[in-house]
Amino acid sequence: PPGPSEVLVIADETAQASFVAADLLSQAEHGEDSAAILLTTSARLAEDVAAAVAVQVPALPTAARICASLARYGMILIMEDLDACVRFANDYAPEHLEIMTADPWAVSARLSNAGSVFLGHFSPVTMGDYLSGTNHVIPTGGYARMFSPLSVDEFVKKLEVQELTSQGLQALQEPLRALTAAEGFAAHQREVDIRFG
Questions:
Q1: Backbone angles phi, psi at 155, to 5 degrees
Q2: Residue 10 near residue 48 (C-beta atoms within 8 A)
Q3: I want to staple 30 with a disulfide (CB 3.0 to 4.6 A). Which of 34, 44, 71, 143 is the partner?
Q4: For 54-63, what is each residue's pLDDT tens digit?
């Protein structure tokens, strides 16, 4: 499910506006369909980041692409508190999630949906792209709710092994009946029933 690049930044008043702006622009640089979103609990940081973006964009050779991306999928949202940021992030399920708060580990402990998480003020997504060792094939477009980043697990063949005892199978015989009846699969139920004569 990898697709257009996206970054979601959760930041509080401890974040440096210039860092946040640079991180948003880095992902917007990927293409006009890239998303760059800031969630912050600080109205002042929101204003400072918008100003920093305006200062940083003109100096970049990819400014036209960045501006097109930000016009379509760029946002700065002021949130009520970090809980609201976490709820938004879990619903949005971003490809890249940066947490620039006073305690990024505490915020990350409440997250369940993100492709790759970058903690603190000195963990920009670019390092994940190039040098920190994480895989760069990451789910986008909300797919982080269902998929993980590409890892060595994708290249490992695994087996599933099951063993039920006679008592265990018999205990599941009746619950199975409702499922096989709902699907109309009588032979599936008989496969279990025949073992108990």
A1: -110, 10
A2: no
A3: 34
A4: 999 999 999 9
